[in-house]
């Protein structure tokens, strides 16, 4: 193992993942370099990155030409394009997965326009798993109320699931419960829970963005003093629940059958407010059996000047609980903050997919006219 800051992070039991995937980063060796130099052991694909790569470059042109006359639906074309990248990344990360079965994963996303339809989400997730039937695949499902049932059903069918767009502690508790129920159903049906892995993806920086906006609108000294604190506190209390949920008799039974805990994954870890330390959401959320999926800029910043000060996610739980009371006292409604973020998050994902499909249509039109 190297001695870079990200390798030090990894040595504390936190897995480093990169939050985008494209054919250029695969063909150009960028992902392999990140694995070697930045301790990267997983990938979460990003439709916005795909859209930019398809629209502005030529890495996908050859495959798009092959699909001319075969497929007209831009979603199906995108799945053909992205599946090749996901498979290539899984192959590249296969040695990681063999050595450490909780890592070496690549996430592929269910169409977010299905986020409020349990059955459609389940069917789409199963379809994606059948499309790339490999142990290193995660399928991403948004943590909406209907999504919870789809998550449980997928786990009960022995599928690896990355639950995305988690903002609230209540919803996180429901996500954990869905995972546990899915495992119990899998065990009851004679399935093998040791083959099932899952991560619960908490979106971090967006919580501060929304809470800070409300605190600044209130504008009192007491309110302004609370800016930049909720995101980290929220994630730390999620980890507190993780430790509680994966202990005790219920969990010990499942663990005895070989079940794996559902690790917390910190997503959206770039700092949006330039007044905050650019590696805030990495430094303050270091801990064992967690994942931090970073954009390239945050990864570069942490390599340059990040500090590994121990298991910081274990610190300050009492202060985190107290912060929720302080926010309520100044007039910030936590439940409304996280509900707003979930609704906006699903919409942003859906908008990204719409832009992606538009980009596929435009590029396909260019190639057809050439």
Provide a short characterization of the protein structure.
With 370 residues, the protein is α/β, with parallel strands linked by helices. The protein contains 17 helices and 8 strands.
- Distance, first to last CA: 49 Å
User: How would you write the strand order of the largest sheet?
Assistant: 1-2-3-4-5-6-7-8
- Strand proportion, as a percent range, falls in 5-15%
Count of alpha/pi helices: 17
Number of strands: 8
Global Rg: 20 Å
How does this structure look, described?
This protein is α/β, with parallel strands linked by helices. Helix content is 58%, strand content 12%. It has 17 helices and 8 strands. The chain has an 8-stranded parallel β-barrel with strand order 1-2-3-4-5-6-7-8, surrounded by 10 helices. Helix 8 links the parallel strand 4 and strand 5 (161-166). The protein is globular. The N and C termini lie far apart (49 Å).
């Amino acid at each position: 193992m190297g001695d870079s800051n990200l390798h030090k992070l990894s040595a504390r039991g936190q897995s480093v993942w990169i939050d985008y995937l494209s054919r250029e980063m695969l063909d150009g060796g960028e992902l392999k370099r990140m694995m070697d130099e930045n301790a990267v052991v997983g990938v979460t694909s990003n439709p916005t990155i795909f859209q930019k790569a398809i629209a502005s470059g030529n890495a996908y042109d050859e495959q798009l030409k092959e699909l001319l006359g075969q497929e007209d639906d831009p979603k199906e074309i995108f799945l053909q394009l992205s599946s090749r990248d996901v498979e290539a990344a899984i192959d590249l990360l296969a040695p990681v997965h063999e050595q450490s079965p909780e890592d070496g994963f690549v996430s592929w996303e269910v169409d977010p326009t299905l986020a409020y339809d349990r059955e459609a989400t389940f069917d789409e997730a199963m379809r994606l798993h059948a499309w790339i039937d490999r142990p290193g695949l995660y399928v991403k499902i948004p943590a909406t109320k209907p999504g919870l049932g789809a998550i449980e059903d997928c786990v009960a069918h022995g599928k690896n699931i990355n639950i995305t767009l988690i903002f609230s502690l209540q919803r996180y508790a429901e996500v954990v419960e869905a995972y546990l129920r899915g495992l119990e159903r899998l065990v009851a049906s004679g399935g093998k829970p040791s083959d099932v892995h899952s991560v619960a993806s908490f979106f971090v920086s967006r919580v501060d963005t929304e809470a800070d906006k409300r605190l600044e609108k209130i504008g009192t000294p007491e309110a302004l003093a609370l800016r930049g604190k909720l995101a980290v506190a929220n994630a730390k209390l999620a980890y507190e629940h993780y430790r509680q949920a994966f202990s005790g008799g219920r969990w010990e039974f499942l663990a005895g059958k070989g079940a794996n805990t559902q690790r917390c994954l910190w997503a959206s870890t770039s700092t949006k407010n330039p007044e905050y330390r650019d590696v805030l959401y990495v430094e303050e959320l270091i801990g064992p059996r967690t994942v931090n999926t970073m954009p390239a800029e945050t990864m570069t910043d942490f390599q340059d000047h990040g500090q590994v000060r121990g298991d910081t996610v274990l610190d300050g739980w009492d202060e985190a609980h107290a912060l929720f009371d302080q926010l309520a006292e100044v007039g910030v409604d936590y439940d409304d903050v996280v509900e707003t973020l979930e609704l906006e998050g699903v919409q942003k994902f859906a908008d990204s997919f719409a832009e992606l499909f538009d980009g596929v249509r435009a590029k396909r039109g260019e190639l057809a006219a050439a």
